[in-house]
Amino acid sequence: MGYEVDFLGVGSESKSGDAIAIRFGNLHGSRHEQTVVVIDGGYSDTGNELVDHIRNHFGTDIVDLVISSHPDQDHINGLEVILNELQVNELWLHQPWLHNHKLADEFADGRLTDSGLGERLKQNLERAWLLSKLANRKGIVLKEPFTGLTDKSGAVKVLGPSQSYYESLIPDFEGMPARAENRSLISEGWFDKAMRVVKTFFANWGEDHIADDGQTSAKNNSSVITQLIVDGRRLVFTADAGIQALEYAADEVDGCYSGAELTLIQIPHHGSRRNVGPTVLNRLIGSPVAQGVQSGVTAIASTARASEPKHPRKAVLNAFAHRGARVLVTRGQGIMHYHNSPGRAGWSSLTAEPYHFSYEEEV
Q1: Is 146 in a helix, a strand, or coil?
Q2: 301 and which of 10, 222, 254, 267 could share a cystine (Cβ 3.0–4.6 Å)?
Q3: Helix (H, G, I), strand (E, B) or coil at 228
Q4: How far is CA 303 from CA 42, 223, 260, in A?
Q5: How far is CA 125 from the centre of its chain?
Q6: 268 touches 275 (CB < 8 A)
Q7: Where are the domains of the chain?
Q8: What does pTM read for this prediction?
Q9: Strand 2-7 relative to strand 19-25, pairing
Q10: Phi, psi (degrees; rounded to nearest 5) at 102
Q11: 25-35 CB burial, b ≥16 within 10 A, e <16
């Protein structure tokens, strides 16, 4: 058994995104001995690149499973191309408009109805709604990816979100009415953006410059966190999940009796400083190690070519390095992580990210 995990280089300019192609099984054998999975499809033009990649490097037009982590355009837009151009057997996609029972009770405006809110969710999350309609027209098996869902092989499993946690997030999705209780995250306004400045920071090994109280949007926290276990190796894909969502996923990992060791972890939200903290990193990867010690974990951030200093945050990359991870960043280029797979012509080893003893960040 082996695997190939390809992070496509999404974002030629400054807008980062995610598009991940995976195949696992007997990669030296025939197609029926392998499983092909796509997690997110980047932007619309990324979808065509992903189709070509699967045909050229995986040698197939069949995708066993497509997972839409959440309905942000940098993750979902390219998936329509995948469903149209390839034979997709199964799609995992959240359908929040199906979770509108008693949803009106969450909001201050007593004129709102559950039905009306369901329609609003379809409109606000139009790409997800259209993707579900496309899947139904094509006869693709459609499932909602909540904690515990596994694929036919049993190797792919959803670590989060649970259905109850997901439903608790829906009222705080962008475009929803004001809540009865003021629990929504405050979005960054134009004044905050105008006041940003770039500052130079200095770091010492082992000192995390991230905090446990970082917050991200409800939609980001609704991201599907996916686990793949092959040959006793655990691979975790986090999309844009935030600290709370990752803590719930860590609970699932703690309760897993497979004995699999973490080999790969996706750095959440393109390396945003709001999505990870020291405590959850300790749970997922392990405690900080001495400089030069390797944990055997590879951590990959998917970022656009010109997205720095916003993505990835150097403090986040350093925090993964503190725990012995080999840190890699796409910066608009593809990265392949593999085990027991055939060689691939034209691909070469990538040098790990250096430790950033000084760096500039927007504050």
Answers
A1: coil
A2: 267
A3: strand
A4: 11, 17, 28
A5: 18
A6: yes
A7: 2-178+187-340+352-362
A8: 0.95
A9: antiparallel
A10: 60, 20
A11: bebeeeeeebb
34: tokens are 């392998």
Beta carbons within 8 Å of 56's beta carbon, 6+ residues apart = none
Per residue in 119-131, pLDDT (tens digit) is 999 999 999 999 9
* 3-state percent helix, strand, coil for the chain, nearest multiple of 5: 30, 25, 45
pLDDT average, residue stretch 209-216? 96
Instruction: With both helix axes pointing from N to C terminus, report the angle between 114-124 and 126-138 in degrees, rounded to the nearest 10.
Output: 90
Per-residue pLDDT tens digits for 27-81: 999 999 999 999 999 999 999 999 999 999 999 999 999 999 999 999 999 999 9
Q: What is the largest CA-CA distance in the chain?
A: 62
Which pair of structure tokens corresponds to residue 31? 């197609």
Lookup result for tokens 């629990």: 183
Topology given in CATH for the domain delimited by 2-178+187-340+352-362: Metallo-beta-lactamase; Chain A (3.60.15)
Q: Which residue type occupies 123?
A: Q
Burial class (CB in 10 A: 0-12, 13-18, 19+), 85: middle
Tell me the two tokens of residue 360. Answer: 């500039």
